[in-house]
Amino acid sequence: MRGRGNDDSTILVVEREPGLRCQISDYPPNDQEKARMAYIKHGAYHFKMDEYPPDESVTHPRKFQYHWFKSFPWLKYSPDKDAVYFFPCFLFCKKPLGKKGSDVFTVKGFKKWKRVNDGERCAFLTHMGKDSKSAHNYAAKCYDNLKNKPCHMEPLVVKQTDGDIKRNRLRLRVTVDSLRWLAFQACPFRGHDESLDSKNQGNFLEMVKLIASYDEEIGAVVLGNAPGNAKYTSPTIQKELLGIIASKVQSEIRKKIGDAKFCLLVDESRDESKREQMALVIRFVDKPGFTRERFLDIVHVADTSSATLKEEISSVLVQHQLDVNNIRGQGYDGGSNMRGEWNGLQAKFMEECPYAYYIHCFAHQLQIALVAASKEVADVHNFFDHLALVINMVVSPSKRHDELQANQVAEMEHLIELGELETGSGANQVGTLQRPCDTRWSSHYASVCSLVKLYKPTFLVLKSIATSKGSGTSPST
């Protein structure tokens, strides 16, 4: 918990109740060390009760035992939650990553008392781990180091000169401008090889170099001439700045929407990593009376069921303070999860807002029409039938798919030996054949391109099938 003094200096108030305190990661970065020192000064509070409450959620209720403090002095008991927390982990463990159980001893609290008196499988011992590099032991080491600092000296604040501030701002401005331009042009940032001796370090670093070549003042403060801890070029910095820019763009879009009625345009598809992504576009009429369509957000979804999509869309609308009752139209593809009259996405929104009329996406209708029309042209129909047959024959059986990838690796190694392929981090990735989708005409083009790219490895797999004894497949197939 934090407050402000009259001198505008930050005052840290230590919350003794472990179940009610905010996490260290919730403090501003400049206050986190102060917060740790404040908690260490007060120490691990061993709350003593005449009788601890039993856990009524299990068949055989058990209670917390005070003597556990002696064996595990880092424990902190929360009477409010009837749960325990590990003090060093609270102070030094990183923000939970969403993995199951990663926040039990720091955020949620542990209260499965039966698992404590379980010998070597004791939950406390399991959490601590035998490896000196475990998360708990790392936190305990950091705790000891900070606790044993001579005289508990406050971190020294090094005041920067006006010149340092000017150089830092110039360096940051170059980074921000480069990111904005690349993002606006939809260009990738990273390079396959970003090492110092690389001929091409990727669009972002090469753009910073280009800007520096036109201005000696900039060249004197960026890249190799920047301090090692303040280059502002790392992937983490890039993502953080992009997140800030994205938030500002979303805020500007929200400001222009105002209280206007709007339509939802939604589509979902898998990205290169096979994760389902849902794009959300808002269509509205601005104050001057012009119709606008603005891409508002893209969200990863666990699946494409109507219930999941409804939940994620509603979450985005709430985040941007957009009222569901202001929806006046829905535009999706014609999948059953979208257009279903009783349980589709459009029906779920109609239950909340009866004016949110659904319209089948015209672009999707055109895609379906093209696919249907292509089947009426014999040559085109036969070509894609043969393409689908080849892809299914090569990709469906896992053994043949493994053979396809092995052939790719062998071909890439051969081309690298001949000097026809460049090497580098992320280059020459092993791919696979892509199946065309019946409702996406554009996917047929991607399918053809994948076969052209993997022509030789695919040919070798088909040849192996034709010559294999006992495969049951004739050479003509």
Automatic annotation (TrEMBL):
SUPFAM superfamilies: Ribonuclease H-like. InterPro entries: DUF4371, RNaseH-like_sf, Znf_TTF. Residues 60-158 form the TTF-type domain. This is TTF-type domain-containing protein. The lineage of its organism: Eukaryota, Viridiplantae, Streptophyta, Embryophyta, Tracheophyta.
